Amino acid sequence: MTQLAETLTGPRMNAPAGANRLFAAGARASYRSHVSTYGSLNVAEIGPDLINQLDRSGLTGRGGAGFAVARKFGAMPQRRRSSLWQSSAVVIANGAEGEPRSLKDETLMRDSPHLVIDGLLAAAAAVHATTMYLYTTGTSLESVASAIAERRDASAIRLVEAPETFISGEASAVVNAIQTGAAVPTDRVARLTASGLKQRPTLVHNVETLAHVALIARYGSEWFRSAGTDRDPGTRLVTVSGAVARDRVLEVPGDVRIIDILTFCGATESTIAGVLVGGFHGAWLKREQLGVNLSNAALAPYGAQPGAGILYVLGVNRCGLQFSAEIVRYLARESARQCGPCMFGLPEMATLLERIASGDRDPRLAQELATLSESVIGRGSCHHPNGTSRLVMSTLSAFAEDAKAHLRGQCLRVETR
Ligand code: SF4
Question: For residue 417, what pLDDT is reported?
Fold first, then answer.
């Protein structure tokens, strides 16, 4: 326990043990049960020292990209509390869960909205911002609005409804949505931390990330690191769906094997054809690779990352090529259609994968698809083409045997959808 955390919270109280951290106050936690579980957070005492705590904690973003959280905080211009500049800084809690298979942020805002609010208040205090937004879809608006109404320290937070589109949670789309109402990414030269909402320094963090910030502000970096691994400390929320007993949101430490998470959720290893890790911009793991930990470090050799915390289990009776083709078509439709790769590349990638999946026996299709997928990387204003390319390349690799079978006029799977 560091001096900072002791200063902020008084005696260390009620620090949750184990991996049940974000939901320790129970389902639909009221402010009263939130405070009695975690203790109160004295935001007035929080300053830039919180950034040092975040750095020591090793917390990475839980919204998708997995960047070091402290680095993003540190990129905000640091000025004295009295300067005019400070009041221009903006912090946005991003709860737009664009990934269709993700339920984690919605679950967090329903059951632990006060941790998200605490994290937003703490983040704003650390960078001396006075303007705060909570941007989320209609599903969560009511629960966060009720939570804000329960307390006196959150009245400055403005709520903005996010559309339920795949790219509405991309950071520049978030800023654009609040500023103009159009939740589409913008072509940026400057970082948002230098020039974001109305050219003001703007910090955008996923709501789960901010919930962890709220706990680190209370209990310190060492407590955060007491779960997970050295290279991927703490816990993360995961949405498990597909061929499991039921869709679930779990909080897991970074040292848990993917197969153990799936087994816990009722999956049977022998009936798994593959697991999509990280969401629609993620990568497939084959059944024999599922002994890997769900962490950035462990997944890196497989070209995967936890991303938005999604594990989608594909059963052996489903064709991975067909399923991936449906996702790529969806991603092509969900683009903002304002950059070349999204207007032309993604629809063609979807078409090529659909042809492979549907049994077109032209042997050049896979290479054509791979070449096109490589060509869109880094060519858009946002990472949508990159993420779509990652999924396509992973599909061609993980389901290579299926593709060969399709060329022979067979399918290894029996579709029962
Ligand atoms: S790359 Fe695609 S999704 Fe991203 S801004 Fe351009 S058109 Fe929109």
Answer: 40
Q: How many C-beta atoms surround the C-beta of residue 362 within 10 A?
A: 11
Q: What is residue 407's predicted lDDT score, i.e. its pLDDT?
A: 86
pLDDT band at 84 (very low <50, low <70, confident <90, very high): low
DSSP 294-340: SSHHHHGGGT---TTTEEEEEETTS-HHHHHHHHHHHHHHHS-S-SH
CA-nearest residue for atom 1, ligand 1, is 380
**Cβ(389) to ligand 1 under 6 A?**
no
Q: How far is the CA of 309 from the centre of ligand 1 (A)?
A: 23
CA dihedral sign of residues 241, 244, 249, 254:
negative
Domains and CATH numbers, the chain: 3-225 (3.40.50.11540), 235-315 (3.10.20.600), 320-407 (1.20.1440.230)
Contacts for 190 with CB less than 8 Å, ≥ 6 apart: none
CB-based contact 159:189 (threshold 8 Å): no
Of 338, 346, 349, 377, the residue with max ligand 1 atoms within 8 A of its CB, to mutate for a pocket test, comes to 338
At 11 the three-state DSSP class reads coil
Predicted TM-score (pTM) of the model is 0.91
Mean confidence (pLDDT) of the chain: 90
The alpha carbon of 169 and the centre of ligand 1 are apart by a number of angstroms equal to 13
Three-point CA angle 32, 43, 71, nearest 5°: 120
Using an 8 Å Cβ cutoff, are 54 and 213 in contact?
Answer: yes
What pLDDT does 416 receive?
A: 42
Q: How far apart are CA 376 and CA 20, in angstroms?
A: 41
Task: Establish whether residue 167 lines the binding site of ligand 1, counting it when its CB lies within 6 angstroms of any ligand atom.
Answer: yes
Strand, coil or helix: what is 14?
Answer: coil
pLDDT digits (tens, 9 = 90+) for 178-208: 999 999 988 777 889 999 999 999 999 999 9
Ligand 1 atom with least separation from CA of 379: 1
Q: Tens digit of pLDDT for each residue in 230-253?
A: 988 999 999 999 999 889 999 999
| pLDDT attached to residue 13 | 52
Residue whose tokens read 């000025």: 79
Q: Is 17 exposed, middle or buried (0-12, 13-18, 19+ CB in 10 A)?
A: exposed
Residue 80: pLDDT over 60: no
Query: For residue 43, how far is the Cα from the chain centroid?
Result: 26
- Other residues' Cβ atoms within 10 Å of the Cβ of residue 187: 10
